[in-house]
Each structure stands twice: as structure tokens, then as C-alpha cells.
Amino acid sequence: MFSQSAKDTNLRLDSLFQTIFKPGEPGGAVLVVRNGKVIYKKGYGVEDIQKKNPITSQTLFNVGSISKTFVAYGILRLAREGKLSLDDDLYKYFLDFKNPSIAKKIKLYHLLTHTSGLPDLRKLSEDSVFYLTAKDEENFAPLKQTEQLNFEPGEKFQYSNPAFNGLALIIEKVTGKKWQQYIKETIFKPAGMKHSTITDGPYPQTGVAHGYLMQGKTFIEKDYGEEPTFAAAGNGGVWSSTEELWKYEQAIRQHIFLDSAWISKSRTVYQFPDWKAEKPPFIGLSWFLYPPDFIGHTGSQGGFRSDYVWWPQRNIFYVLLCNIPQPITEIREKVLNILKQ
Predict the structure, then answer these.
(1) pTM check: above 0.90
(2) How many helical (H) and strand (E) elements, i.e. helices and strands, does the chain have?
(3) What gap in Å lies between CA 319 and CA 331, rounded to an integer?
(4) Class at the top of the CATH hierarchy for domain 4-340
(5) Is the pLDDT of residue 241 over 80?
(6) In this structure, is the dihedral angle defined by the CA atoms of residues 56, 62, 68 and 73, taken in order, positive or negative?
(7) What percent of the chain lies above the pLDDT cut of 70?
(8) Cis ω on the peptide bond leading into residue 292 (within 30° of 0)?
């Protein structure tokens, strides 16, 4: 039985999300865990505005950049097994860099922490049709033409999507199999994520939410086929549900697919001896460390938005997946304020 305070919390959370999502429209799914127990899970709106299937805690959404944490753990597993090193340079895996001296400066940990200095040379606006179907290889290829870095590796933070396309390709080079299959075997399966999947060419057409944007008073679909780079899975190709992301979080904390030392390293701020940015480092090996002590990652791709937060001080886990753009950081603040009370 829920206590009165738990009931009050649920009522306040439900009231909040009813003001955000409208019945019959694209919406979202939310799940909240406190002290290891799910205290709130609910879906709002519909997966598909044509079929009107209601969103539930089992609905698969594209999770956007939360996908990067799966790629990162794939790399860390290979590092633990001695099949690669985070100190390996890019030239070891990509001999076709136009300027080998640049590739030799950049280490794998620079890619994992968005500190490589590689400019994003993809011409997305000029060649948007090409990037509608361009996969990881095509999205990383322009970076191999780099002749000048934006800064020296390890000096600053600059978010990079194609860096994770490169990391996904490295998994393939080391394992000899598609990186999507490697992640399914080594993370999804042991974590019990039976329904989660990863874009590999076309994305799953059935059993998933579709992403939408509002154009005037009309919803337009904005996902695979409409949003450039959607086919590049290394930076945002994972499809999962709030329930299965909770399984992922449990597997992380229970060291199911990676031992405690590597998990801790992934969620500890990575330090750089030559850091030059005004703001100190705030990222682990793909995970962001938010003040005061949140660990998490957000996602944004096409019409999808996602927020994944672990708050160890309060033993709270929170995940929100949307198929319509929403101000996820503002929503997070309101949710955590409710939970603090």
C-alpha cells in the first residue's frame, strides 16, 4: 500500500504531466524510482497520431543521445578485455585521415568526453537529402578531412555527434561484427532489455512511437526519413522504453555487464591536465555530471526528446521519453522539486 505522502507525490506528478501532454496528441512516458522501487510510471498521449495507440511505459521511443552511453560502454568493455585502450589514437583505427598528425593527437577518451577538438565538417544543410540515409561511416567520413582542430585535444569541451559515429565504427573494427549486434549481445541481453533495439539501416516501423513537430496547428512527422542524420545510429540510434531504461540503470549499478571500477570511471568527471576552458570539466566517459550531484544524459533527435537522471544522494532515478519536443530540463527541475518534498 502507498503511504499518504506517496499518494500525494503521485497526484502532484500526474497533475504536472497532465499540464504538459494533451490526450490524443503525441506525448511521453515517465518513470520514477525511489530507493530501488518504481513509485510512478505512466504514459500520456499517443504513439502515432494516425493509429492513436496510447503511450505506455513499454512504448519504444528513439532515445537520442542517451544512445551514446551504450556506445561508450561497448568501448569500455573492449578496454576492460584488453582489446583496445582508451589511450589509443584515432590513426590506429582510421589510416585514411588526410592529416595523420591530427589523428595521432586524438585519443579514444577524447571522443568519449567530447574534447577531441575535431570540427563537425558535415554539410548537413547543403546536402540534407544525402544525410537522410547516411549511416555512421558517412557521418564520420568528413571528419577525416580535418586540417585544423578547433582546439588541442583535452583543452575544452565541444559536443560532437560524429565522434560517437567514429566510436561505433571502432567497435566494429575490433569485434568484427556490427556494433548494434555487439551492444545487443553484451548490454541489452544481460540487462534484460528484450524489446529495445538499435537503428541499423531502416528503423523499426512497427511497435515504436513516431516523432512529431508542431507546424502551425498541424503535427508533422519528424523522424527516420524526415530528419537528416537519423540513420547514423552511433550518436542516437537506440530505441527503448522507460521500463527497459530502468533495467539498464539497474544493470549499470549492479555491474551486470561491466565491473565496478569501469562503471565508476564512466560516472566520474574525467580530468584533463591541459584543460583551458573557464568552466571546469563536467563529463565522465559519456555521462554528464550535473550539479549538485546528478548523473545523466539527455537526448534530442527529430521529434523525440529524452531525459535520463540518476540522483544518488536521494536514491532517485527518473526517465522521461517524449515523441514531441518538450522543455525537458525545466520539467526535470519540477519533477525533482516534487520528489524532494
Answers:
(1) yes
(2) 13, 11
(3) 11
(4) alpha beta
(5) yes
(6) positive
(7) 99
(8) yes
What is the residue type of 273? P
Contact 233, 200 (CB under 8 A): yes
Per-residue pLDDT of 36-59, as tens digits, reads: 999 999 999 999 999 999 999 999
Instruction: Write down the residue that cell numbers 567530447 correspond to.
Output: 114
Count CA atoms within 13 Å of residue 327 on its CB side: 7
Helix axes 4-20, 328-340, angle to 10 degrees: 160
Short-list 153, 132, 131, CA closest to 142: 131
Q: Is 64 exposed, middle or buried (0-12, 13-18, 19+ CB in 10 A)?
A: buried
SS3 content of the chain, % helix, strand, coil (to 5): 35, 20, 45
Q: Scanning the structure block, which residue is given the C-alpha cell 539498464?
A: 248
Partners of 220 in the β-ladder: 213
DSSP 51: T
Q: Where are the domains of the chain?
A: 4-340
Range list of β-strands (E), the chain: 28-34, 37-44, 61-62, 197-198, 212-215, 218-221, 238-240, 288-290, 294-301, 304-311, 316-322
Query: Residue 204 pLDDT more than 80?
Result: no
Contact 112, 286 (CB under 8 A): yes
Question: Cα-atom radius of gyration of the chain, to the nearest Å?
Answer: 20
257 three-class SS: coil
Q: How far apart are CA 33 and CA 316, in angstroms?
A: 6
- Give mean pLDDT, residues 127-149: 96
Nearest to 97 by CA among 118, 70, 125: 118
Nearest to 108 by CA among 248, 269, 270, 253: 270
Q: Are 108 and 86 in contact (CB under 8 A)?
A: yes
The string of pLDDT tens digits covering residues 153-171 is 999 999 999 999 999 999 9
Q: Could you give the C-alpha distances from 288 to 132, 193, 220, in angstroms and in order? A: 28, 23, 31
